[in-house]
Amino acid sequence: MRASAESAVGAPMNVVFAGPFGLRPRGTMAVRALPLARALAARGHRVTVLLPPWQNPEDAGQVWEENGVRVENIPLPPRTPLVSHILLAGRLARRALALRPHIVHFFKPKAYSGLAHWLMAHLRSFNRPRWIVDTDDWEGPGGWNDVRDPQTGKPIYSSAQRHFFAWQERWSLTHADAVTVASRTLESLVWAMGVPPERVFYIPNGFSQDFSPPLRPADTPVILLYTRFFEFPPERALNILGQVREHYPDASLLVVGKGLFGEEERFLQEAQRRGLASAVEYAGWVDPQRLRDVFARAALAIYPFDDTLINRTKCPVKLLDLLGAGIPVIAEEVGEIRELIRHGETGWLVPPGDEEGFARAVITLLGDPERRARLGEAAAQRVRQIRSWDRLAEIAEGAYLQVLRGFHGAAPDLAFQASEDGTGAFRSVWRV
C-alpha cells in the first residue's frame, strides 16, 4: 500500500485530524475519522488524530497507536466557564501545529475543532498547513440548531449557542482550502455558501463492520429495527408492525439501539398501550462485536427516515451496517439512502411517509425468502465495493494533493526533517 501513496503524491504526507470531541459517546470520530485515518495510514501516510475528550475526561492525556495511526487525547484544562473552552481549543491548535503537518483536517465546523481552525487562521504564516474541513451534519436553519427535546419541547441549545454554532459553521466552511462532505445534500448546501465546487469533495461514510461472510436472512418473521429513534417518531415503527401482523400474526420487531433523548421509553410504553409489547423485543445498545449474532435473527430490516433536512444531510452508518451485513432493508427514499440502495436490486425503497406502502413491502418480502436472499447478497457486495474506506481514502488523498498544489500550481517536494523531540516531521519544500 505504501507504494500507491508514493506514486500518487511523490512521498507520504503528514496529516493531522482534529476532532470536536473524543471517541465517545458521539460517533463521528470513531466511525468516520478513525477509519479514514487507518485507510490513509495503510496507503503510506503519517496520520495523527487529535481528540479533545471533554465528554470522556478519563481519556485525557492518553496516547496510543492504532493500525498505524497515532491517537492523542488532549489534556483537559480546569473547567472554567468560557476560559476552559478557549484553552482547550488552543491546546488542540498548538499540538496540531507542533506536528508540522501538510494537512490539518478538521472534523465538524463547530465546537473545539471549529475553534482551533479559527485560532490557526489568525496566525499569519506563509508555511501554514492546508486546512480541510469535514462536515457530516447540518447545524444551521432546519438543522441541529432547531432540534428540541421531545420531552420538554425546549431547544437543546441556548439562543447564544445557536447563533454561535450557525456563525461557526458558515465561517469554517467558507475559510477552508477544501471541504469534505458526507452527503450530496451537504455538498449542495456548501456550494450555496459560495464555496467553489472544485473545492468540495464528496466522501460519504464507509463500511467498517466485519460481517464475513455476509449473513443470510432468517426464515422466521423477525423484523429488525436498528436505530437511534431520532430520525422518526417512534410510533411509526409500531404502525408498520401492526399492519404487518394483520397478515403475519407471529411477526415480531427486534429493536436494537438507544434513543438520543430516551425515545425508547416512549416507544416501549406505546407498544404496551397498543397491546404489542409481546411482539417487541428491545435489545438496547449492542456491542459491535455482538451485532452479527443479533442481526442473524432477522428476516429483514426496516429503516424509517422522515424527510427532514437533518436526515437529508446524514450518511447513516447504521444503514451501512445493515446492508454490509447482508440484511435486506426496506427504507424510505430520503437523502443518502437513495445513494446506498438501488430499488429492487440492493434493497427496497418506499416514498417518505407512506406507512401503508412500507407495511406492504414488508409483507411482500416476508413471503418471498428467495428475493430477500438476493437483495441481501447484492447489498453486501455493492456496499463493500463502493464504500470501502480504502476507496474513500483515495478521494481524501486527492483532495489533499489538490490543495497542496493549489497555492503554487505544482505539488511540493515532501522532505523529512527531524524535530526537537526526535520524532521527526515532514516539511514542504516548494520549487518556485
Structure characterization notes:
The chain has 15 helices and 16 strands. With 432 residues, it is of the alpha/beta class. Mean pLDDT is 90; it is low at 1-8 and 407-432.
Concise overview:
39% of the residues lie in helices and 17% in strands. The protein has 432 residues and is an alpha/beta fold.
How would you summarize the topology of this molecule?
Elements: H1 2-9, E1 14-18, H2 28-42, E2 46-51, E3 63-66, E4 69-73, H3 83-98, E5 103-107, H4 111-121, E6 130-135, H5 159-174, E7 178-181, H6 184-192, E8 200-202, E9 222-226, H7 235-245, E10 252-256, H8 263-273, E11 280-284, H9 291-295, E12 300-303, H10 309-313, H11 317-325, E13 329-332, H12 337-340, E14 348-350, H13 355-366, H14 369-386, H15 389-406, E15 413-417, E16 425-429
Parallel strand pairs: 1-2, 1-5, 2-4, 5-6, 6-7, 7-8, 9-10, 9-12, 10-11, 12-13, 13-14
Antiparallel strand pairs: 3-4, 15-16
Secondary structure category: alpha/beta
- In the predicted model, the low-confidence regions spanning at least 5 consecutive residues are 1-8, 407-432
Strand order of the largest sheet: 3-4-2-1-5-6-7-8
What does the largest sheet look like? 8 strands, mixed
Provide mean pLDDT, rounded. 90
CATH topology of the largest domain: Rossmann fold
Number of domains: 2
Say how many strands there are: 16
Strand content of the residues, in percent?
15-25%
> What is the rounded distance between the termini?
31 Å
According to CATH, what is the class of the largest domain?
Alpha Beta
